[in-house]
């Protein structure tokens, strides 16, 4: 072998060059191992301070840090500017111009990128007072808590609400029920007897106004999700939650609503201004997906009873007749039947009979049957498709008339539990029993649970809704949240007669600030910390939590200590407690948010 210049290469020259390289490699490996040992030994020295009073009481000796504990530096979060008082990050009107006007899709969820996320505490409005307690809150709220005059001026003649002194009063009126919502629902119950006997338990109200319909149904044993989009003036969802009525921000537009298929027993629209017959009836297809077989869709307002109302709708009788006929045709094609109709209220029922759905498989039929390309329950940033989701024939007990009536259905193992990994009737019963024990323990730790101090509750990562079921006799309601990245158990929650939504806690929740009295999570950070930065999750929890509201965090000691440290910078007071079984691996952190007011000026 020769060099390029022709000089011979001797074998021992090659060997002599390999030796220094080998020595260098060994030295580098040894040095890396040494550095790694130093790092690991130092890592075991890191520790978080104990939760609350120990740091404030100099007489107490500091706890010896546990090996491997997490080091989190205390961070003080700044206040957001004063005009962030109603900030909704993923439905922010300040960002609407960036998105399409098509089907009002700009009003759907559009969350800011990470570099635009706010790292500040959302302030309450000037003059904010602690909310009026339930059930008085159903009829009145403090004006300064929801200081919007526009809706009062526009809707006072329809008796939605009226301002008197320092309060908004809610007479229970609406566009289609100026004589009061109770009379309106009485008429509806005459058309749907199942609303009286426990058959109908869950409902969704699209375009809910100030949620008077859902509020009245609570007294009749029916739990309603009131839905309305974020807007600049009306703040419908904020009014609903201030009153203590379940509600979320949302709009039927281009994306599926974050609810499973075959979930609601009833859907309602009272002059909600949704153009049901446009775009091939695609909005009706989404209602069809969410309704369980045998469920009811109730419509009052155009074009129902057009013969008597068309003059007041600024249209012609011919146009309204055409619109009603088109609506009826679309509903029939989607396997709805006209169930009952009287005066201004029309009721359709989603058929359970498979023979109608088989017709959707015929070529050139509209709407066609949805193929298997998109799961019926996939409903997190999932486009609404121009096809009908056909009920799965493997379920024999998912139709409304096959479910146990309320309240028996609450503790009856739903058929869909078998679709959950590890799910079974036995696992469901065990979970149900476990949460009864846990809820009893929680009431000792937070005596406000079960009193009028806590009304709006969220279980941030439920499995089967066990926490909500265990608190069913308390004067509160629970929004059961299922992670869009976890096992799909939300259908089970609805089959029990409870309500909930899909959500990804890497993003902001679809609600206004200061809307929940109690937030509960069970292992959320353990499950999601690899995706979601803890700081942003905690800031979002602070945004939606009311002043004086509580947080129950059930986590490993590792995350309990980390959250306790960060919570000091959010004006929370926290204490660490034992679980009901005194487990060393799992602890409970109880926190309460303090009431504070902005010291900053508006800047948006």
From TrEMBL:
<dbReference type="GO" id="GO:0005802">
    <property type="term" value="C:trans-Golgi network"/>
</dbReference>
<dbReference type="InterPro" id="IPR004159">
    <property type="entry name" value="Put_SAM_MeTrfase"/>
</dbReference>
<dbReference type="GO" id="GO:0032259">
    <property type="term" value="P:methylation"/>
</dbReference>
<keyword id="KW-0472">Membrane</keyword>
<dbReference type="GO" id="GO:0016020">
    <property type="term" value="C:membrane"/>
</dbReference>
<dbReference type="Pfam" id="PF03141">
    <property type="entry name" value="Methyltransf_29"/>
</dbReference>
<keyword id="KW-0735">Signal-anchor</keyword>
<dbReference type="GO" id="GO:0005768">
    <property type="term" value="C:endosome"/>
</dbReference>
<feature type="transmembrane region" description="Helical">
    <location>
        <begin position="21"/>
        <end position="39"/>
    </location>
</feature>
<keyword id="KW-1133">Transmembrane helix</keyword>
<keyword id="KW-0812">Transmembrane</keyword>
<keyword id="KW-0325">Glycoprotein</keyword>
<keyword id="KW-0808">Transferase</keyword>
<keyword id="KW-0489">Methyltransferase</keyword>
<protein>
    <recommendedName>
        <fullName>Methyltransferase</fullName>
        <ecNumber>2.1.1.-</ecNumber>
    </recommendedName>
</protein>
<dbReference type="GO" id="GO:0008168">
    <property type="term" value="F:methyltransferase activity"/>
</dbReference>
<comment type="similarity">
    <text>Belongs to the methyltransferase superfamily.</text>
</comment>
<dbReference type="InterPro" id="IPR029063">
    <property type="entry name" value="SAM-dependent_MTases_sf"/>
</dbReference>
């Amino acid at each position: 072998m020769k060099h390029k210049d022709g000089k011979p290469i001797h074998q021992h020259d090659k060997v002599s060059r390999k030796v220094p390289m080998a020595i260098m490699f060994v030295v580098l490996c040894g040095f890396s191992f040494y550095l790694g040992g130093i790092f690991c030994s130092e890592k075991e020295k890191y520790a978080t301070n104990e939760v609350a009073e120990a740091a404030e009481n100099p007489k107490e000796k500091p706890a010896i840090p546990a090996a491997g504990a997490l080091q989190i530096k205390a961070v003080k979060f700044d206040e957001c500017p004063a005009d962030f008082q109603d900030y909704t990050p993923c439905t922010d009107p300040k960002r609407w111009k960036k998105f399409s006007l098509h089907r009002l899709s700009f009003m759907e969820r559009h969350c800011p990128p990470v570099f635009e996320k706010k790292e500040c505490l959302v302030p309450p409005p000037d003059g904010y007072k602690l909310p009026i307690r339930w059930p008085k809150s159903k009829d009145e709220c403090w004006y300064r808590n929801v200081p919007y005059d526009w809706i009062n001026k526009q809707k006072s003649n329809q008796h939605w609400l009226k301002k008197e002194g320092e309060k908004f009063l809610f007479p229970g009126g609406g566009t289609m029920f100026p004589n009061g919502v109770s009379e309106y629902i009485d008429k509806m119950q005459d058309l749907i007897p199942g609303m009286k006997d426990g058959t109908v338990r869950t409902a969704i109200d699209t375009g809910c106004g100030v949620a008077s319909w859902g509020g009245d149904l609570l007294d009749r044993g029916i739990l309603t999700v009131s839905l309305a989009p974020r807007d600049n003036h009306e703040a419908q969802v904020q009014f609903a939650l201030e009153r203590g009525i379940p509600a979320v921000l949302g709009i039927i537009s281009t994306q599926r609503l974050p609810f499973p298929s075959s979930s609601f027993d009833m859907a309602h629209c009272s002059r909600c201004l949704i153009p049901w017959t446009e775009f091939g009836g695609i909005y009706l297809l989404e209602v069809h997906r969410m309704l369980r077989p045998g469920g009811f869709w109730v419509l009052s307002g155009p074009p129902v009873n057009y013969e008597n109302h068309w003059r007041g709708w600024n249209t012609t009788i011919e146009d309204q007749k055409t619109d009603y006929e088109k609506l009826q045709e679309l509903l029939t094609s989607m396997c709805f039947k006209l169930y009952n109709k009287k005066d201004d209220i029309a009721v359709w029922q989603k058929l359970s009979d498979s023979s109608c759905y088989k017709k959707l498989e015929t070529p050139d039929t509209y709407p066609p049957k949805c193929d298997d390309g998109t799961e019926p329950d996939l409903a997190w940033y999932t486009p609404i498709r121009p096809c009908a989701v056909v009920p799965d024939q493997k379920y024999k007990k998912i139709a409304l008339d096959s479910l146990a009536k309320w309240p028996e259905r609450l503790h009856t193992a739903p058929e869909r539990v078998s679709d959950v990994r590890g799910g079974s009737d036995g696992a469901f019963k065990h979970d149900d029993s476990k949460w009864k024990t846990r809820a009893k323990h929680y009431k000792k730790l937070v005596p406000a649970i079960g009193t009028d101090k806590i009304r709006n509750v969220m279980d941030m990562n439920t499995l089967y809704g066990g926490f909500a079921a265990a608190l069913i006799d308390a004067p509160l309601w629970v929004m059961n949240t299922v992670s869009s990245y976890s096992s799909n158990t939300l259908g089970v929650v609805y089959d029990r007669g409870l309500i909930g939504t899909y959500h990804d806690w890497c993003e902001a929740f679809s609600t206004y600030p200061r809307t929940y009295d109690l937030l509960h999570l069970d292992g959320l950070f353990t499950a999601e910390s690899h995706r979601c930065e803890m700081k942003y999750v905690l800031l979002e929890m602070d945004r939606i939590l009311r002043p004086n509201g509580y947080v129950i965090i059930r986590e490993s000691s590792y995350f309990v200590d980390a959250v306790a440290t960060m919570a000091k910078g959010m004006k929370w007071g926290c204490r660490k407690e034992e679980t009901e079984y005194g487990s060393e691996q799992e602890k409970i952190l109880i926190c309460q948010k303090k009431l504070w007011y902005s010291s900053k000026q508006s800047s948006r």
